[in-house]
Amino acid sequence: MRIRVVGAGTMGRGIAQWAVMAGHTVELADARPEAVAEAVSFVRAMLERAVEKGRTSRAEADRATAALLALDSPYATPGDGAAPELVIEAVLEDLEVKAELFTGLERALPASTVFATNTSSLSVTRIGARLADPGRLAGLHFFNPVPLMRLVEVVPGAATRESLVELLVALVANSGHRPVTVADTPGFLVNHAGRGLVTEAFALLEESVAGHPAIDRIARDVLGLRMGPFELMDLTGLDVTASVMDTVWDGFRHADRLRPSYLPANRVAAGLYGRKSRRGFYAYGDGEAGPSLPEPRIEGGDAERAVRVTGSELAGLATSGATPDDALVLVPTWGTSVAAAVADEGLPAERTLGVDPLSLGTPRRVLAVTPATREDAVRDAVAVLARDGHPVTVVRDTAGSVAQRLLASVVNVATGIAERGIAAPDDIDTAVTLGLGYPRGPLAWADTVGSARILALLRALAQETGDPRYRPTPWLTHRAALGLPLSTPMASLPE
Ligand code: NAD
């Protein structure tokens, strides 16, 4: 296919590289001619590197290099009659700039050329609405770096022709990436799904449940995420993350589940963006540890102290035989708090602590303490949990503990995406694994833990906090009640 890529910045050059390597002819254009020249050298250098590393042959790289053409204007009319079949736009993220570009392209190119925008936050429908023929434009949302990030969101606007969606899906799939079709909604699929983790991470910070290094350690070790939420925001840039959080929340008319925290605004104003400004949640640069901060060690506890447990999940931690009066009491916190267990079951507050059952069987144990827990009980409980060599993170008591709350939020947001029909359930899981790098898609993940357990968790959170952000979605509630996997599509209705 002959593809014109307009905008030769970070994304445009990545898209050009991906397309020439997949065998397409690419015309590259930009408002700044020097940007085209830089992008062509960049793609050539990447192709050379691929040859050096043995990832591609010399002949293949030469063919791809020859297939990359520099244009001196986005509107250049083809002299030889070889008009591009598709234009992919990757210019400044501004509705006016994009709309003006497409109206100019509509005048310059034949009616058979179709258009795609790589916008990450604007409405595809609004960009297309300025065209005489809005049916010829769709969203084609790539991720950075394009050659490595295999996911591409294909986004039909309200007026987009079905044949264009089919063409783009086939183009992406035949060129080695994975297309997912997503409704034209704020954040599309990946940026919407990603809100589950970061908004809940901020909620935990707002409630002083734990510091950000502890939350990140729990996210990595208990949930198996490659990066904790704060480490991830430092990489993405808090300015970018905060703006996506606001766009998605505003776009969905302040849906409680997506409510952002008050915390990022001042951090952004102070330039604490993350890696790019060398300071974010962590400090970066020479001699700084970044997210690999040394972990605080809690020493001096009695690993042999007697333990009584109140739930079968913790049976392995109980001392055998009769337990003395001063035994520690460990309660499993599944959507519940230690404080509630103390009150409901008449437990001794000064030596009752919570253990997150989700952390058992993972590389880290998570222990919850209340304002009534005595210091010796905390030390001894840490020593007991660390007996098998696992690190222990101590957090403040909250319904559901850290990992459960993060997971519940990820699942609830994902099921909200499914029930709004924004994407097919299987595509949600695929997009989250490829686009966000989670170990599992949120729907499959919830099924592994048990959708009924996730539902119980959210209900307990909603009840204890009274906060509607924890209201479970009907998608989750109904599938859990029916014993169906969360990936079960909507019921089809008779025509
Ligand atoms: P960038 O600043 O690196 O590149 C933008 C390029 O567009 C520049 O070379 C600029 O000269 C050119 N340009 C600006 N106005 C133009 C015009 N009217 N006509 C022709 N060229 C023009 O930006 P980027 O990060 O590559 O982002 C481009 C688009 O891709 C944006 O819409 C952005 O939201 C989207 N996007 C970015 C990312 C990302 O991670 N960077 C990811 C997905 C989507």
TrEMBL record:
Annotated ranges, domain 3-hydroxyacyl-CoA dehydrogenase C-terminal: 187-284, 401-481
Keywords annotated in UniProt: Oxidoreductase
Instruction: Write down the InterPro entries for this protein, in alphabetical order.
Output: 3-OHacyl-CoA_DH_NAD-bd, 3HC_DH_C, 6-PGluconate_DH-like_C_sf, NAD(P)-bd_dom_sf
Which positions fall inside the 3-hydroxyacyl-CoA dehydrogenase NAD binding domain? 3-184
Per the UniProt entry, the Enzyme Commission number(s) are: 1.1.1.35
Root EC class: oxidoreductase
A GO molecular-function descriptor: (3S)-3-hydroxyacyl-CoA dehydrogenase (NAD+) activity
Cross-referenced Pfam families: 3HCDH, 3HCDH_N
Task: Name the residues that span the membrane.
Answer: none
- Keyword Oxidoreductase on this protein? yes
Instruction: State the family it belongs to.
Output: Belongs to the 3-hydroxyacyl-CoA dehydrogenase family.
PANTHER family, A to Z: 3-HYDROXYACYL-COA DEHYDROGENASE FAMILY PROTEIN (PTHR48075), 3-HYDROXYBUTYRYL-COA DEHYDROGENASE (PTHR48075:SF5)
Name-wise, this protein is 3-hydroxyacyl-CoA dehydrogenase
Look up and give the organism this protein is from: Streptomyces smyrnaeus
